[in-house]
Design brief:
The chain has helices spanning 43-51, 69-75, 91-101, 107-116, 130-143, 160-173, 187-190, 211-218, 222-236, and strands at 4-14, 17-28, 31-36, 58-63, 76-78, 148-152, 179-183, 196-201, 204-210. The protein is α/β, with parallel strands linked by helices. The chain has one domain: 3-Layer(aba) Sandwich (Rossmann fold), CATH 3.40.50. It binds adenosine-5'-triphosphate. Adenosine-5'-triphosphate is lined by residues 14-15, 17, 19, 37, 39-45. GO terms for molecular function: ATP binding; ATP hydrolysis activity.
């Protein structure tokens, strides 16, 4: 089944501050989508709302036309940063927890990923470096056989060699027909695997285009095009 993720007129405030305003987005098919935007633009908030981790927004969020939270959560694998996990837990125990909670958890795939990423299952969370922790989050998130993957800055603490290795492998790990949304500040590194680009700016989505369309229409790389969105704004100030 072709996956469809729809966000319709999403509005979200926290402590009287407007964080997302009239956000609408429709993503369909077997794609990898880059969610770009400067610090504080609202990328994490948008992913948390779609994943159902953050609540109380106005608007409609649906996956395959299903809007109820339980169904959405069962269809979406979100790179939750393990905040609720006790730090004395070993990687193997975190894996056990995921396996119990998510019926779609594929242990074989998880094992392949932790071998590829050289994770030691006996290590406790408290002993993990930032990058190793992120590798664990990527493994846990992609081990689920979900319809939608939301990866929020998955590579920020990971060394550049491992980052390239992961980015080059992500297409193999992504199940056919699933949608993957990746937010990242290393635009040039992820650009080669992106099918579409979504840019969040000034509390809303200002661009949603196919990566190839951007390259053809603007004659620019994705990174240069993205940076030009900010350059133009500055010159208008
Ligand atoms: N709990 C909160 N209470 C109040 N404001 C919040 C809260 N969480 C986020 N914000 C604000 O919402 C805005 C969007 O934050 P968000 O973390 O979604 O941005 P982001 O695009 O993911 O940024 P980054 O690239 O730095 O991760 C920011 O201005 C932030 O200060």
């Amino acid at each position: 089944m072709t996956t469809t993720l729809k966000v319709e007129n999403l509005n979200y405030r926290r402590n009287l501050k407007r964080i997302l305003a009239d956000v609408s987005l429709s993503l369909t098919g077997n794609k990898i989508v880059g969610l770009l935007g400067e610090n504080g633009a609202g990328k994490t908030t948008l992913m948390r709302l779609i994943a159902g981790v953050a609540k109380n927004a106005k608007g409609i969020i649906s996956v395959n036309d299903k809007t109820d939270l339980a169904t959405r959560k069962s269809l979406i694998s979100y790179s939750n940063p393990l905040g609720g996990m006790a730090t004395n837990k070993r990687i193997s125990e975190v894996k056990d927890f995921y396996q119990q909670v998510y019926p779609d958890f594929d242990e074989q795939k998880y094992n392949q990923m932790i071998t590829f990423l050289k994770l030691d299952e006996s290590q406790r969370l408290s002993a993990l470096s930032k990058g190793t922790r992120e590798k664990l989050v990527i493994s846990l998130t992609l081990a689920r056989q979900a319809s939608v993957y939301l990866l929020d800055e998955p590579f920020s603490g990971i060394d550049s060699m491992s980052r390239k290795k992961i980015i080059n492998s992500i297409i193999q790990w992504k199940p056919a027909d699933s949608l993957m949304v990746i937010s990242d500040h290393y635009v040039s590194e992820i650009a080669p695997i992106l099918d579409e680009i979504v840019v969040v700016k000034d509390n809303t989505i200002v661009v949603h285009k196919a990566a190839d369309t951007i390259r053809e229409e603007s004659g620019q790389s994705i990174e240069d095009y993205y940076e030009s969105l900010y350059g133009e704004a500055d010159s208008n100030d």
